[in-house]
Design a protein that fits this description.
The complex is a heterodimer of chains A (566) and B (178). Helices cover 67% and strands 2% of the residues of chain A. Chain A is mainly α and 566 residues long. Chain A has a three-stranded antiparallel β-sheet. Chain A is globular. Chain B has 178 residues and is α+β, with helices and mostly antiparallel strands. The chains are: A mainly alpha (566), B alpha+beta (178). Chains A and B meet through helix 2, helix 6, helix 7, helix 8 and helix 9 of A and helix 1, strand 8, strand 9, strand 10 and helix 3 of B. Strand 4 of chain A pairs antiparallel with strand 10 of chain B, so a sheet runs across the interface.
Chain lengths: 566, 178
Amino acid sequence: MSTTYRTCPRSGLQFEAQAERLMLVNAVAAVVFLLVGGILAVGVVLTRWPAVHWLSADAFYMVLTAHGIDMLIFWIIFFEMAVLYFCSSTLLRCRIATPRMAWLGFALMLIGAVTNNVAVFRGSSSVMMTSYVPMMAEPAFYLGLILFAVGALIGCFVFLGTLVVAKREKTYQGSVPLVTFGAITATIIAVFTIVSGAIILIPTFLMSVGIIKEVDPLVYRTIWWAFGHSSQQINVAAHISIWYAIAAICFGAKPMSERVSRGAFLLYILFLQLASAHHLLADPGMSTEWKVVNTSYFMYFAVLASMIHGLTIPGAIEVAQREKGYTKGLFEWLRKAPWGNPVFSGMFISLIGFGFLGGISGVMMGTEQLNMLIHNTIYVPGHFHATVVVGTTLSFMALTYFLIPVLFKREMINPGLAKLQPYLFGLSMYFFCLVMMGAGTLGVSRRHWDMAMGGSPLAYEFPGAAYLMMGLVGIAGIAAILGGAIYIYITVGSLLWGKKLDAGVESSATIPLPKTPMPVSATIQGHGSAGFAAPGTFALALVFLVSFVLYYFINWKYLSQVWGLS
Amino acid sequence: MSAILPPAERLWWKHPLDRVEGTWILIAFIWCMIMFAMMVGWHIYGKQNLSTETYKTTPELFSNKTQAMVEKYTVRKETDKEIPVVHPPPGSDVYLIARLWDWWPIIELEKDKTYKLHLTSMDFNHGFSLQPVKHQHSSGAGLRACDQSDAESVGYFLHRLQRILRHRPRQYGWPNLR
């Protein structure tokens, strides 16, 4: 099949025509679902804000179901498809494999997403994203998810096929770039995730149409979480790849050590999915050994991997900045970073928030015994908004600001507003997550429409602090939604009204990546101090470690004071 | 080279690592092992560990056992709904039913005494939360989890327990049907 390649004059990146169109449609579909999910978020936060308590119970559960699925599944996975095509076809400068199959995958994803949304908005599928049996949704609810998953699986195989094309047509030499390596990690996790989803959602669909009589509730929970939690593991691998990409784009940063960064991705492939056990820690039926091994990602090896990425990404930026002459003290490199560039600021706010808020809280709540303190409270959404929203969504937003001129060939409208957006969105989400976790620590329930459980014959009165924090959740949520709205305004507005930019030279053949001229084992220690290439980053990492250790042991202390049980 | 370009060395696994990376990996690894040891060690030395004792049961069977307990040990009834308040003897098996939208019956336990608490659900997945003691568990339909609670700090909690066990269900994704 004949195709053309366009070299972007602004970035030097080369886009193949089919891959470029696929990236465009996937990114646009993603933003549409973000918009829908964002509007739904208004309903969620204004209902859980006790003083407002806006929606009726039925409407709230419907809105919450749609918000979860549209955000965590549809927005993120559509965007990830664009990222996969970028990391294969664009970074490796090759044609995309089987473009027709890729379009089929996209069509299935779109049909599935719309089908699922229609089922939810009809009102009889308010089963939450988790859709635990024996509580049943409409058949279309499951069918939509299954179609979407099949489409996404096709996308994963197109990505893998594209890697084969690049290798066979020798469009690059040596190993694939680190960012592509990270995308491969995400894809491997995605295949595991989607297959797990199929194993449990297909029988549940058959149950909903009456072909199968029963799906065991505990088997459902066990397998569903191999799908549900692993979805976020795809995101982690994807957004960490994006952090590496943004460090390269904004600073020309090279990985401190390819071996370390790739080794950390390998740890993800091996151990990250075990974390689905976090959701089953309070379930009957699992042995203690099973819980301990799985919930710790087999002795915390995936946590080790995340702690490595948390050092090597800012470390790579620090090394690049020091080479440019920002060598004063520990932090000149960070002070002189382009804080006004939303690509960088979004990525850095995401990295810090993901580590401090999402990472530390995740390990705490994933500890078998500590989990009892917060299981099924609103602490859990507090945690996963720090990982999914601060980590993944904000990273995708930051990457979008890079893609507007490069992929969409438009000048960004209102750059002043774009500068502010990551701060407004990211910092209000920080606060949102913190107060949500605070309320959860006081025992506020995870999903209940009315935290006061009003109407019960013997109601439970929460302390005033719980109401205060849920009120703050509402205020911070509205601020974050405003930040999200600005992102959508800038993205959609730039596509519609942004000044058209020069598309660059088109050619009928790819220009392969040149062989890298860098000397082998170039030293990176020239500009650091105390024998450390990145002393500032190391200092930041130690601050992280101290916070981690303190928070972890405070919770053990807290646990030791509650009733014993065995 | 930069992370979006192929690495300069084909054999990336031979790429040397900087001292900052090596040091951090060592620190992080030690911390990971400490966390793992904490979780295992708490099973040996700690007092708060979830029981994994689980039995297969049916709603009918469990309901009958609960009913038998209620008939034997009810000491009074509370609220307009006449919910039985059960005061089982220490050391006995205590049964608690979850169903939309109730935990049933109200249970009154004595300070410093040990009980064996059985939980199950009659319909959907329910969560069990004890406030303000803060134990959160799940009970799946058709199974019962068995926790041996060592009620050592009841005092204040005892009074709350009877109220809360009954009325603080954690719903797993289900519309409010009050």
